[in-house]
Task: inverse folding
């Protein structure tokens, strides 16, 4: 019992740090989008994080994946980071980082729904209540409007959250047969590979990759806070899940929206409306109703 407790103690601090980094990531991306296009920013983020992950992976050594494993990892990289982070980046061009951080937190809701569908089992009563509360929170984020607050930006972030949930289900299969660090390194490499054609198309079409107000701070935040920060967050997560179950780690990471909202308020000087506060309370409250069994894919 003492050994298990000690392992959980050593797993929690890196997991909490990872949650902070993921929360700040949304704010950093919103800031960098003031100077960089969505595709350029995504490519820069993935290049920085991929370089960090592969440097560590190659220094440690790993077994090359089989052809079937590579196809699974390519599918994983397609859903996240390429589609997931790309959709969130597009959504951030239209909505505040506070709202995006809250909507991004709905990934747990999608995981519960996907797990119930794929495993052909009914979710627990707590999980159903959590989904209803989180959905109600999403509906009121934009205030008492006819569209229930689901603007184009909101829908894009929700789509990114759904893609991330699909990636979580795929990753759950991959880590059964591969080292988690190798899975993440290949995942980001494939995500970058899928993003490069979009970047080439943007340049070829003559679309502006930069705005007139771009300055070194945008590049620094994109590469260090968003790129390296994302890589470090995944490294810490990989370390934590060797000491905690993946599902237990998912419960702790539910606090990411809290850090995301706090970072947007502190660094971007964004404000929270009464409706956003109510929505935040519903979303976060709903997410925390999920148990380990609900998030266990």
Result:
């Amino acid at each position: 019992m003492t050994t298990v407790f000690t392992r959980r103690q050593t797993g929690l601090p890196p997991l909490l740090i990872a949650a902070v980094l993921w929360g700040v990531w949304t704010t950093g991306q919103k800031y960098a989008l003031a100077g960089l296009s969505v595709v350029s920013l995504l490519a820069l983020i993935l290049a920085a994080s991929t370089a960090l992950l592969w440097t560590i992976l190659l220094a440690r050594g790993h077994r090359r994946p089989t052809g079937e494993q590579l196809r699974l990892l390519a599918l994983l990289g397609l859903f996240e980071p390429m589609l997931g982070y790309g959709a969130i980046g597009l959504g951030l061009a239209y909505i505040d980082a506070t709202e995006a951080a809250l909507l991004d937190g709905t990934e747990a809701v999608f995981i519960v729904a996907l797990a119930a569908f794929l495993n052909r089992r009914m979710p627990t009563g707590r999980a159903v209540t959590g989904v209803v509360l989180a959905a109600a929170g999403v509906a009121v984020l934009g205030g008492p409007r006819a569209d229930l607050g689901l603007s184009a930006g909101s829908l894009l972030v929700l789509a990114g959250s759904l893609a991330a949930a699909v990636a979580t289900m795929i990753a759950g299969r991959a880590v059964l047969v591969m080292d988690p660090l190798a899975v993440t390194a290949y995942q980001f490499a494939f995500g970058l590979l899928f993003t490069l054609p979009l970047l080439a198309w943007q340049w070829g079409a003559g679309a502006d990759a930069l705005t007139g107000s771009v300055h070194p701070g945008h590049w620094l935040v994109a590469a260090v806070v968003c790129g390296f920060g994302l890589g470090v967050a995944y490294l810490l997560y990989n370390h934590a899940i060797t000491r905690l179950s993946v599902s237990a780690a998912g419960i702790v990471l539910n606090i990411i929206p809290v850090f995301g909202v706090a970072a947007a308020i502190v660094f971007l000087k964004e404000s929270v409306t009464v409706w956003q506060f109510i929505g935040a309370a519903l979303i976060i409250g709903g997410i925390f109703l999920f148990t380990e069994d609900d998030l266990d894919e």
